[in-house]
Every structure is written in structure tokens, then in C-alpha cells.
Amino acid sequence: MSAGALERILEAVRSGERALPRGGGSKPALSGGATLALDGLSGLLEYDPGEYTFTALAATPIREVEAALAEHGQYLPFDPPLAGTGATLGGTVAAGLSGPGRFRYGGVRDFLLGVRFADGRGQALMSGGKVVKNAAGFDLPKAMVGSLGRFGVLLELTFKVFPKPESYAALRADFAATAAALEALATLAKGPFDLSCLEFEPPGRLWLRLGGLAEAVPPRSAALAQLLEERGGQVETLTGPTEEALWHELREFSWVPAGHGLVKVPLAPTRVGEIEATLADLDPTPARRYGVGGNVLWLAWPEPLGEARLEAWLQQQGLPAMAVTGRWARPLLGRVSGEGFARRVAEVLDPEGKFRLPEAKVRS
Amino acid sequence: MTEAFHTELAALFPPARLLTRPAQLLPYESDGLTAFKARPAAVVLAETRDEVVAAVRLCHEHGVPFVARGSGTSLSGGALPIEDGIVIALNRLNRIVSLDPEAQLAVVEPGVINRQVSLAAAPHGLHYAPDPSSGPVCTIGGNVAFNSGGAHCLKYGMTANHVLGLTAVLPDGELVTLGGPSLEGVGPDLAGLFVGSEGLFGIALEITLRLLPTVAHTRTVLAAYRQLAVAGEAVAQVVAAGLLPGAMEIMDRLAMDAAEAAVQAGYPPDAQGLLIVELEGVEAEVEAEFPRLMALLEASGPFELRVARDEAERAAIWKGRKGAFSAVGRLSPDYIVQDGVVPRGRLGEALDEILRLSQAYDLRVANVFHAGDGNLHPLILFDGNREGELERAEELAAKILRMCIRLGGSITGEHGVGVEKRAFLAEQFGAAEMDMMARLRRAIDPKEIANRGKMLPVGEAPALSQRGPHPLEQKGIIFRE
Asked: Chain A: residue nearest B181 by CA?
């Protein structure tokens, strides 16, 4: 980064009443009221494949990072979403978004090692580190994940990366009944299968991805296909470019229909069945997918149903949610935990409320 | 400890669970870092979360510092008591509140032993991944406070990566719930921020842990080298080949000698560097990776390669490694365990420097490290009864930590800053960062009573200090022996 870009951002924080950054704009529900462009804050700063780490400026597009990592057979295993739509590293951290690959090795929270950020006084601060293991000082990088910019403007990020499996296969398994699909989902989630991804598409479809060595993947996928067939699933195996395209589409949320707002709803996987039952009662029924073995519901909320209806449903279910795309009065909905603690952190990092989202009204 | 505080504490805890006599306090004076000792004014043995909350609120009200303690295995002095403060012992809060195999979650109290979580999960085909060497003894509460690691961090991360949510009492008595029962969340990852806060953010009362499927298959290989640096190069080659072993551990000759003396691990007697690599995962994958790993290791120039043929042989290889720290006690009356991190690519450089320092200070240093993630554990051997040796050992330890900072690493990979490395945190971070962390601490703990004196320098809050006989001593309520 040119020193000028950094100084411009710090100055904007110091002099402005609000400092709400916008990266690639791939998550419009979160960047609508942005006041701070991050021009010049893009580029890979350090990357040593032997260390399994890289450091990049916060507004670096994921696409660019992934291309650089791929040259050395490495990747960000959590499949940062919306890369094709221009998502940046910083936006992914601030939104706390992980894609299907989160299932195997963890999410953005687990791969972010260090941050450099501007606090509300406009000073650049470091937290975490540049090595894969580090327990020194408070772990602010974790707090930045999902913070929606509330604790600072991200400037520079260090991530852990892994070697990318040399070969992949995907299985699509269709079940006649939701219950049978969910039983299979539970078996796969807790079994020793080392799946890279495990997704559920209601009413009865499972998507599995397994990665590994070229000689090991075919027998593993055959064994899994047999297991799913024994449970009544109709299985199709995908490989090669078709397989890659499938996961790319899931990462891009290309299944979300026009006129719908995408909402992330984290949940315990054991609740998928009951949640499904309540959603089926809605008219129109929202399109939806469950990712990460049933740990997250991606809900395409039809605009006509309205935000109040979603809020009521979330409260009823005792669930929190975050809007990703679409038009919303506020990004966080439902029952978000820890507000009392978050407020104390914000008082330190943002005493003047410069990073407060315009309509943010979150509850504990 | 004022009389008023003591009276109120006595109203919360029956005499059998409120320890104030020197003989009762003695076992609490130190933790795993035995070079430091401090006698607390009292120790309370809490049995319920309500008791913990009440004790914390009382401490806040009276401005009395407290230290939460599990099994006291901290290697950085994290559980070292504060003079005139109290210790809140959590060992009796040892219930696994719930274990849900379908959701792959365990909700536990802070006094639950690390290893017990995996034992309870095993019948369901699940386990708790973080495996510090002290796993059979250390508690989850301590693991959470210090973000404990273990030998398998490269692939699956540290404690923070396995804590999904927690309920905690903040140092001013507020109860908070952070995170939740899902792998995913929305809003800032505050459970993640709480983990590793070294007790400064309060006491975790209930912790939601992620359980992973039991490892289906392992291949454990031991490679013996005539030179330590060659073992380090082998690690770099495994990494460059794109293999992702569950663990890669290196021991030097002195560490092997210690392990031999303690547990007869059967390591090759003429090895100067020992590398343990463990592949783990589904059988088809591991068996496909295994020949690739063996080819790499064979080419790396070991004089012996040993593959564990069964679980017993695997356990024997690990027994020596996991017992290495305590085994060093067989070679030396005293030792300091260090815990620095360097970029993996600079391991060789770091080892050369440690060797040079060892010679310069005329102190033996045994090296055990998590090579996969550049986490060094030099064990500095000394005899505290010899004039000036402790000071020399501490100086040597300090030089190693400064080297870690200089090489772009960290002063701690998994043991935490504690009291031991408090002076070095300000060398790893700048003044602005130290100030920010101090302000953050005060926002959570205005009176700076939670584990005062750990991680951060003691700030503006007045330290409680007494000179001469303690008022309660004069009254015959407490004793010094």
C-alpha cells in the first residue's frame, strides 16, 4: 500500500463523523451506508508458501488472493463466499462469512491470524501475529470476525492457508423424504469421513464434497455413494469441471432468486428438522440451503414477506441472523448474543461511535 | 484482606471450603511455573457457578484481586496467586453438563479435565481435538483462559478454534453469554476474543465445545537423524510437498535423554534429532499419503525410520514426547520451559542461535518443538541452589524470546504470557497496542482485579499491599508459617 492510501484512511477516520468502509460491495445489505472507499488498499504484501501464511491489504479481492495461492497449490479452505462478485478479504472478515469448505477445517475465524486496523482515534493498531500459532495478547482478530466494522477499519490481514487437495469428487444424493435426508446428514456429519463440504438442499437433497489424493478419492467416493444408497438415496457422482462449477455456484449463492434478500442464520444442526417444518408454513416459502453440515441456514427471504416477519420468526425460534444481500433496515436480526460485552469493546476501540452502523440496533 | 471481606467470604463458603491457614494455602502458592511463588490471603473451593459469581462480585465490591485456578498446570504462571488476593478454585465445577453427539457438542464446567471430554465423547465416536501434553490433568477452564494448544494444532487449531460459546462472569460481576451452539455465528466473535484472555476478562462458567469424529486411522513415523538441523529440513520438505500431517514434532538429544530416563521411550540412542510425523484421517487417504511421506523421509537422510505397527508402538512414540517436559526433571533440579514461535522457515536459524546461547551461558538447553507450526519449547536446565544460576537461566530465556520476536514470531505459541513473559509483550507489540489492551482490560474490569499482574503490567488501579503483620494475622484469623 502506498503510505498515502493508509494516511488517507487514517485521516478520514480522524476527521469524519462516521467511517463505514466498503470493500468490493458484494454484500449490499452490509455496505449500503458506507462512507469510506478503500482505494489503494489492495494487494498481497507477503506470501511464503512454506509458512502456510500470507499477509495482504484488507481490500484485496479474494479472487486475486486465490489465484496467487493456487500457483503454489494452496487455498483458503473456508471457501470465502461471493469471490466472483468481488468480495474482499476485509469484507469477508467483517461480515464473518465462510462458505461450504468451512465444514472440514473451520471458518474465517479459524484462518485469520493477525490484523492491522484503524481504531476510532484514527491510529493503526496490530493484533494477533504473522505466524500460524500465537497466544500473545488479546485475540482481537477473532473479535473482528463478524464485527461489521464496529471495532475498526481493517487495513491489513494475515491468514493461514493449507495445501489444496489435488483431487475432488462431489456426490449428490436425493432422498424421497426430508427425514431420511436429515438422518443421512447427521450420520455423515459425525462420522469419520473427512468430508470437505456437506450441504442440505430441502426438501431432500444432500451435497457432499471430498478432497484428497488422486488415488484415494475414487474409492472414498464409491464407499460413500454405497452408504447413501443403502439409506435410500439416489446418488450421482460429479468430478472435474462440473464438480468445480457446482461449488463455485454455491459460494456465489447463484440459487438465490431475484427479489429475495440473502440472510445468514447460524443454528445447531440438530434443529434443522424443526426449522424446516416452520418454514414450510410460510407463504411464499423462502428458498433456502443449509450449509456446514446443518450449522448454518442460508435463507433467501422474499421481499413481500418483509423484515418484520423475519424478525418475528427469528425471535420465535430464538435465532440470530445477519442480512447479506437485499434491502434491510439493519443488518443484524433476531437474538444476537453478547451485546453487553461488545459494547464494552466498542467503547475502547470506537469511543465516538464512528463505526456504528447507521441503523444498527442490536439486542443482547 | 480486610476483616469485612473475610466475614462476607465466610458467609459464602463453609470453613471446609474457605482455606486461610498457611498449610492449606501452600499447595496453591505456585502453578506449573514453580520458580514463582505467592501466598494468597485465602482460597475458596467453589462448588457451583452461583458461588463463583458471588465470590467475584464480592471481590469487585471490595476491590480484592482474584485468580481462578483449575489444576494449576500453567507454565507461564497464569494461576500464580496474588498476594492479598484470593484464589477461586474451580476443580469441583467438574460436570459435563451435556454431551450431544448429534450436534457434536459438549457443554462443560470449567473444572472438567481436558482428557475427560474426549473419554466421555469416545463412546459416540467423537473426541475433543486440543491435546496439550498436560491433557490428563489440566482443565478446560484453564485451556480457555490460555488458549492451550498441543501437538495437533497445525491441522485443527488451538482451543479457540474449538470453543463455540461460553457463559462467563465478568470481573465486575456481569454475566454474559458469548457465541452459541453453532459452528457459525453472526456479530463479532466474542467467544473467540474471550479465549486466551488469560483470566483478565473474568471466569468462564460454562463452555460449549466442538467435538470432532474420532480419528479413523493414523500412521506414525519416527525418523532419527545425526544432525538436528536435518530433522528441521525434513519438515520443510513435507510441508513443501503439500502433505498436511496431524502432527510434526522434533526432539533433540537432551530431550530424548530425558524421555529415556523417565519412560524408556526406546528412541535411537545415537540420534541427534528425532522427528515424529503422524498422518491421520480416513484410511484410504492416510494409506495413499503414507508412501509419499516415506519417500520424502527416506530422501531426507535419516539413519533410522521406524513406523509404529500398532497402537502400542504409536503410544510408546508419543509417551516419550508428551512426557518430555516433566522428564527433564530427571536431568536437572530445575528448569524453565520456554514457548516461543518462529516462522517455520527460520527454525534452523533459531536452533543454531539457541545452541550458541546455551554455550555462552554455560547452561544446557533441551529442545522439544511442534515443528509443523514453528512452536519451540526450549527447556533451560539449571540448579537454583547454585549462586546466580536462576538469573542466568532467566537471562537466557529472555534472549530466546527476543530472538523469536526478531525472527517475526511470537513470545508464546500456547502457554500464554502470564507473569513469566509480561515484560516481553511490550516488545512484541508497540506502545499503542499495549495501551489499547490496557484500556480494553479496564473496560471489562474497571478495578483490574481479575488475574492482576498477568499478561499486562499492573495499571493505574491501586495495588493492595500490606507491610508488617496482616491485620487478620494479628487477630489470629490467618497464619504465616
From this structure: A268
Closest CA to B213 of B312, B280, B139, B132: B280
Name every chain B residue with its beta carbon within 8 A of the beta carbon of A339. 187
CA of A130, closest CA in chain B: separation in Å? 7
- Which residues on chain B are in Cβ contact (under 8 Å) with A193? 213, 282
What is the predicted ipTM? 0.96
Q: Work out the minimum CA distance from B14 to partner chain A, whole angstroms.
A: 33
Nearest CA in chain B to A105: B156
CB within 8 Å: A320 and B187 = yes
Contact B102 A322 (CB under 8 A): no
- Are A213 and A164 in contact, with CB atoms under 8 Å apart? no
Digit-by-digit pLDDT tens for chain A (364 residues) are 567 888 999 999 999 999 999 989 999 999 888 888 888 899 999 999 999 999 999 999 999 999 999 999 999 999 999 999 999 999 999 999 999 999 999 999 999 999 999 999 999 999 999 988 888 999 999 999 999 999 999 999 999 999 999 999 999 999 999 999 999 999 999 999 999 999 999 999 999 999 999 999 999 999 999 999 999 999 999 999 999 999 999 999 999 999 999 999 999 999 999 999 999 888 888 999 999 999 999 999 998 889 999 999 999 999 999 999 999 998 999 999 999 999 999 999 999 999 987 654 443 3
Task: Enter the C-alpha cell of residue A41.
Answer: 488498499
DSSP per residue, B93-108:
---EEEEETTTTEEEE
Q: Are B191 and A148 in contact (CB under 8 A)?
A: no
